[in-house]
Amino acid sequence: DCGRLDFGDVALRVPNVKTGEVDLMPTSLLKLSDPRPHIIMMDERGKAPKNLQPTLTRLDLERCVDDIPLPQGSIVFSTTNNASDGVGDNILAHSANRLMQVQMRKPTVDEWCAWATENGLDSRLRAAVALNPLFFQSYKDGHLENDFIFKPNLGSRAFASPRSLAKCDVVMR
Length: 173
Hints:
Layout lengths: L6 H4 E6 L4 E6 L12 E4 L10 H10 L1 E2 L2 E2 L5 E4 L14 H4 L12 H10 L4 H9 L30 H6 L1 H4 L1
């Protein structure tokens, strides 16, 4: 969760008494001492503090934490919100310019219900979703009349989304 991180969560500068220099020592967060390839997903990349963004850019593009490379074969990818969502995500322009951006779509009602069934979510919740496909519409598709969905210009705090619907499972039970 990049929005909660600071540089000291990733690495620290520590004195090296043998050389009289200060070295970078990675924290245990990324488990760099493990020689196996890593898969690192940086969630909420656009909410990372500005002072951490250069480090994350290097991790994105060069698979390094400062000058310490990840194990060969490692994969790094990030998630963030759409700029049109208006929730404060920001990736520096020179970084964003070098990243491949893939727009993810919402699941369909059928896909979400299949996932919910596989994960044991309450049958009443699955039925409610199946009967209300409006829950899976998006403002990006022009569905601004839909009162159930997120609309960034209204600042709504409660709306139906695949994630919030799954969170309803505990209430349904």
